[in-house]
Amino acid sequence: MKKIFCSLLFLLSGLLLTAQTIENPTFKARNGSIRNITRIERTPECTKVYIHAIFRPHWWIMEDGDSYLEDAATGKRYAQTGAEGIQLKEKIVMPDSGTTDFVLLFEPLPADVQTIHLIAPNSTESNTYDISLVPSPKDKQPLKSVEGNWFADDTQGRWAYGIYDSLVIANNRLYDLKECRKKGKRLILAAQSRADGSSVTLQLTPRKDGSCLIALEGDEAQRYVRTRPAAPAVEADEGYDEDFFRRDSVWLQGYVDGYDPRLEFDSGILYLENEISRQDYPTVVPIRPDGSFQCKFVLQHPVCQDLVIHNNWIPFYAEPGDTITLYLDWEDLLARSRARDSFFPLSHTAYMGKKAGLSYLAMTLSQHFNYPYDKLMKAQKTLTPAQFQEQLQPTIAQWQQQADSLCRLYAPSKKAVQLTRNQIAMQTGYTYLEYQTSRSYYARQDSTNQALKVQPDASYYSFLKEIPLNEPSLLANRYISVFINRFEYMDPLNAAYKVYARLPNTETFKALPDDEKRILLQTAISEAKDSIAGSLCGTASPLLWQVARVRDLRYTLPEMQNRRDAERLIGRLEQTVTHPYLQATAREMLDELCPETEQASYRLPEGKATDIFRRIIAPHAGKVLFVDFWATTCGPCRGGIQATADLRKQYRNHPEFQFVYITSENESPEKSYTDYVEKHLKGEACYRLSDTEYKYMRQLFQFNGIPHYVVVEKDGSISTEEVGTHNLADFLKRRFGDKQ
Q1: Which long-range contacts (CB under 8 A, 24 or more apart) does 208-214 make?
Q2: How far apart are CA 325 and CA 323, in angstroms?
Q3: Helix (H) or strand (E) holding 434
Q4: Cα(423)–Cα(404) distance, rounded to whole angstroms?
Q5: Hey, what's the torsion of the CAs at 190, 194, 195, 199, to 10 degrees?
Q6: Around 524, how many Cα atoms within 13 Å sit in the side-chain half-sphere?
Q7: In contact, 476 and 304? CB cutoff 8 Å
Q8: What is the dihedral of CA 231, 237, 239, 245, to 10 degrees?
Q9: How many CA atoms lie within 13 A of 121 on its CB side?
Q10: Nearest to 666 by CA among 343, 333, 340, 311
Q11: Residue 450: alpha-carbon gap to chain centroid
Q12: Residue 61, SS3?
């Protein structure tokens, strides 16, 4: 009997040893936060993974049943065997709470497995890496007690220090952590600057209340807390002075907390552009394996800009000469993605630098003063201009109230007040102009729509007189590009093109030489536009209209037949464009677009981007290449490709010419890419790059928007001739004849 009892005890102890429950297991990284692991149960029969799902109410999620667990040490996979609380391959509609719970079942894990990955091969936001199945050690490394961000415990609440696994942020600099040692209750950190190799020492004394006393280089210790103020203070300033326009470099650097290379992205991008000259100069932001990043770019004036990381747009404020440090919490970005809301607050984002307060303001402004686009589209088709004005007024009044509150909060900074007021002006102006943009198109599509038959009169544009169009700081606004685009192409300006019907029929015009005709036409149209704009704006040639006139040179200067005519056009422009900086920009555009010495092509600069491009075009060496940067998600790209179908047939297998199509994994999802190429580009030279490689192509050839076209000469140089799908047939005929 005793022998049987001992055998039972032995068997029971064996079962207890093989059964295990891990509550809220820790993990190292994940690419989504819809599926949250709350518990893992290990038994000899199976492994249960308890999921707490969070998603938008009334949206659906689905478990395909093809997830698996992977032993992090050996790579061995353990298949999914079922589920509890859900039906596999069926949509789960989220309840009002936006949460639901279920269990995923997998094959049993061997007892020696300590770390696993949960992988969903057909999902882009369901993988969790390095899930620990063992208890966390009680004696944590000393650094853990002080890791994270530390903010000044005063009314300013500035972000002063960031302490991470191998990185220290202090003095608006990035330092590599070289040593961490304990000295009594203090931690001594030794770090080395990435900028110049200099060393610093920090002394940190954690306190029971969660705060920390921190001293840098032997200075007196100050108290810091982990909590970022809800509205960090901004430094006082006297506003923008006469040096608003100035050219200088900017350093942007920072850290993505929670980043891991397995998240399948290793870069961000800045979609930079010079609004005055219409020049794009996107800049790649490489992300190191430790989550830190650093890049340099040039500004012509202060801006509210966005860093784009993994489809997240993170605002910041910069002035020429600045260094900006940015902290991002990966879990914040996942929560925004999960919410499917581009304005979802990033509550842990922190900024460091002289203008940090204005970066916090830029983030606040990006989350407010937005008119719902679906509501605007509906108004375009259903409301008359007067009705839309009436509908918009309460929204504008609400924006004004919000702006007043922000201006009181940021009152010490005149720049902050200007930026806030400008935000209202830009958003109001854009909304009014955008309403009218597509109504003529919709009217042609639906001739019975009575609302679309009503066109606005001049009084509709009275809002332009309320916008400070002579204020240079409008160019710092985050939405200046969309506003000025609608402003320079607003419907009333179309009346200026009546010149084409009137002027060529006059005897005086007919008697002029061709070059004089071109200049006279451009001048007459410009003068007509000046008159219309002056009437609508209530003042002649306000600064923003002068900007629009300079921007127009991107299209009018290439129409001039020679440098002399282009210079004459610039001379006449300067009668309207009187701002010295804009005049200088116009002269720079003259040298760019109509150089005194023509250059047929140029060589690409040496570097990573050029190496990527050379690898792509290497199989086509010795040919002239028409390179099309495109995406399946881009309608104009697809239109251009399909419009050149006959040309591709005509020049297929040409010994001296080749079409090349380049897209990215991010902008052309695999299935849509495969289907589109099979239908429209079969047999062509098609390349689908990684997201980072495509970003480097944007930087190399300086384009933000697509489609973008490049002509590569036989020797590998890049043609300076502007060739697109609209003039490609003429280009090919001129270079190679009709059919070879």
Answers
A1: 211/153, 212/146, 212/150, 214/150, 214/160, 214/161
A2: 7
A3: helix 414-437
A4: 12
A5: 10
A6: 16
A7: yes
A8: -100
A9: 9
A10: 311
A11: 39
A12: strand
Dig out the tokens for 93 from the structure. Answer: 């509609």
Instruction: Look up tokens 């007189």; give the residue.
Output: 465
Give, in order, the Cα–Cα distances in Å from 331 to each of 222, 337, 341: 29, 10, 15
Residue 446's φ and ψ, nearest 5 degrees, are: -135, 90
Contact 294, 253 (CB under 8 A): yes
Q: Please give the model's pTM, rounded to 2 decimal places.
A: 0.93
Task: Classify residue 667 by its DSSP letter.
Answer: T
pLDDT greater than 90 at residue 554: yes
Residue 550 token pair: 């300079």
Convert the pLDDT of each residue in 144-202 to its tens digit. 899 999 999 987 889 999 999 999 999 999 999 999 999 998 999 999 999 999 999 99
Residues 6+ apart with CB under 8 A from 142: 180, 181, 182, 187
Structure tokens at 311: 């489809």
CA 374 to centroid of chain Cα atoms: 21
C-alpha 597/C-alpha 412 separation (Å) is 52
Contact 265, 691 (CB under 8 A): yes
Which one, of 718, 699, 721, 726, lies nearest residue 267 by Cα?
Answer: 699
Question: Which amino acid is residue 412, in one-letter code?
Answer: P
For residues 283 and 297, the answer to whether their CB atoms sit within 8 Å is yes
Question: Which band of pLDDT confidence, cut at 50, 70 and 90, is reported for residue 9?
Answer: very low
Q: Which residues neighbour 454 within 8 Å (Cβ) at sequence distance 6 or greater? A: 384, 385, 386
Amino acid in the structure at residue 306: D
Please, how many CA atoms are within 13 Å of residue 663, restricted to the half-sphere of its CB? 24
Helix (H/G/I), strand (E/B), else coil: 16: helix
- Per DSSP, what are the bridge partners of residue 334? none
Tens-place pLDDT, residues 282-333: 999 999 999 999 999 999 999 999 999 999 999 999 999 999 999 999 999 9
How many angstroms separate the CA atoms of 715 and 623, rounded? Answer: 8
Terminal alpha carbon distance of the chain: 99
Q: How far is CA 517 from the centre of its chain?
A: 44
Distance CA 740, CA 736 (A): 7
Stretch 50-71: mean pLDDT, rounded? Answer: 97
C-beta separation of 51 from 63 below 8 A: no
